């Protein structure tokens, strides 16, 4: 539950986001899709309370099927462990050619000087640590969120973001086993920073409570990113990755996109083309005032499977029309 102070803070923060590049309608540095120009400001949405799903995103005017509703830049990204040296360490764009071009001394690839520059704030801190133990821990258990928390902690230490920048997002409710697991992850993370000789003053925010708070928000709000295949080679690489069940290039969290609620028959969806820069698109005609909803899961699953995943992963019983009719 938001307190009065955090609610005021959240409102100010949202205002800031709506006028900032995090919530962007500018495609010049994001995905460029000249055949489908993004409409000019302001974006046709507002965030408001829903009757049964907390806050949600509503259309402020009619939106045509296929329109880009808005573009979105991630606040935090992290490549999948199996793709660490195959995708841009900042925007998750796939490495085009084999070879050393754009690769830093640690073997990480940056697709452009822009991405290298934007990652300076966290990469300087991150490259001081030895993350092999944390990576191994995550790889063994199939975890991805601890890596995003590590990246966020480096961003905070590098001065790129405030330590409470995700507080506005809804957290997952956590059970006891999850909390115990998080305590271990926290110790591992803090220990790795200590070994990297990060000064205690730079880590004052990095408490166990901060770790749990951030991870609880990532659990509900982070997106798993699978890029469209741009070439025959990409297509084959994806097919190979699927054998290892890891087709995702990485994970990312966005602020405004995190306010979209779920429907098993959604009217909007999030699209990535070649990087973590995303677009929200309308799947059908949307009336002014209608709530925009995306599908969090594979919509082709049967109703029981969908209900189970939504309850266990996101903590709610879906009562969309498809679920009500048992479709
Ligand atoms: C990504 S957030 C969406 C924004 C959220 N409603 C908020 O106020 O920040 C996901 C959470 O929203 C709620 N939610 C999303 N879709 C829902 C639905 N169809 N029915 C009930 N709750 C839903 C659940 O609590 C879920 O964990």
Mean pLDDT: 86
Alpha plus pi helix count: 10
Bound ions, cofactors and other small molecules, one mention each:
S-adenosylmethionine
Q: From the helix content, strand content and strand pairing, which structural class follows?
A: alpha+beta
What separation lies between the terminal Cα atoms?
A: 33 Å
In terms of DSSP E residues, the strand content is 5-15%
Strand order of the largest sheet: 1-4-10-9
Helix content: 25-40%
Give me the strand/helix succession: HEEEEEHHHHHHEHEEEEEHH
The overall number of domains is 3
Low-confidence stretches: 1-6, 19-39
The largest sheet, given as strand count, sense and whether it forms a barrel, is:
4 strands, antiparallel
In brief:
One of its GO terms (cellular component) is nucleus. By secondary structure, this protein is of the alpha+beta class. It is built from ten helices and eleven strands.
Describe what this molecule looks like in 3D:
With about 325 residues, the chain is α+β, with helices and mostly antiparallel strands. The protein folds into 3 domains: about 5-70 and about 260-270 and about 280-295, Beta-clip-like; about 75-255, no CATH class; about 300-325, no CATH class. It is built from 10 helices and 11 strands. The strands form 3 sheets. A 4-stranded antiparallel beta sheet has the order 1-4-10-9, with no helix packed on it. Strand 9 (about 270) and strand 10 form a beta hairpin. Helix 3 packs across helix 5, helix 5 (about 145-155) crosses helix 7 and helix 6 (about 175-195) packs across helix 7. The longest helix is centred in the middle third of the chain and has 20 residues, at about 175-195. The chain is globular and about 55 Å long. The two termini are about 35 Å apart. The structure holds S-adenosylmethionine. S-adenosylmethionine (SAM) binds near residues 55, 259 and 316.
């Amino acid at each position: 539950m938001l307190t009065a102070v955090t609610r005021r803070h959240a409102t100010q923060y949202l205002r800031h986001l709506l006028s900032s590049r995090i919530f962007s309608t500018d495609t010049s540095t994001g995905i460029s899709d000249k055949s489908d120009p993004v409409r000019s400001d302001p974006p046709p949405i507002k965030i408001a309370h829903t009757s049964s799903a907390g806050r949600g995103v509503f259309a402020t005017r009619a939106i045509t099927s296929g329109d880009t509703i808005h573009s979105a830049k991630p606040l935090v990204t992290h490549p999948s462990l199996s793709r660490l040296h195959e995708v841009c360490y900042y925007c998750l764009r796939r490495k085009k050619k084999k070879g050393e071009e754009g690769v830093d001394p640690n073997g990480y690839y940056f697709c452009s000087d822009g991405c290298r520059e934007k990652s300076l704030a966290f990469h300087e801190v991150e490259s001081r640590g030895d993350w092999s133990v944390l990576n191994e821990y995550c790889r063994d258990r199939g975890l991805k969120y601890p890596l995003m928390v590590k990246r966020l902690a480096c961003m905070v230490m590098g001065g790129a973001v405030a330590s409470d920048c995700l507080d506005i997002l809804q957290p997952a409710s956590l059970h006891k086993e999850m909390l115990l697991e998080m305590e271990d992850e926290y110790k591992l993370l803090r220990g790795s920073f200590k070994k990297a000789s990060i000064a205690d003053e730079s880590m004052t925010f990095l408490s166990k409570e901060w770790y749990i708070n951030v991870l609880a928000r990532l659990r509900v709000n982070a997106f798993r990113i699978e890029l469209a295949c741009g070439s025959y080679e990409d297509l084959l690489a994806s097919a190979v990755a699927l054998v290892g069940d890891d087709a995702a290039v990485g994970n990312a969290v966005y602020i405004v996109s995190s306010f979209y609620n779920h429907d098993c028959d959604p009217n909007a969806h999030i699209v990535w083309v070649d990087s973590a820069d995303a677009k929200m698109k309308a799947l059908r005609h949307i009336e002014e005032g209608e709530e925009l909803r995306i599908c969090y899961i594979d919509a082709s699953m049967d109703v029981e499977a969908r209900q189970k995943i939504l309850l266990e992963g996101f903590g709610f019983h879906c009562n969309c029309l498809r679920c009500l009719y048992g479709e």
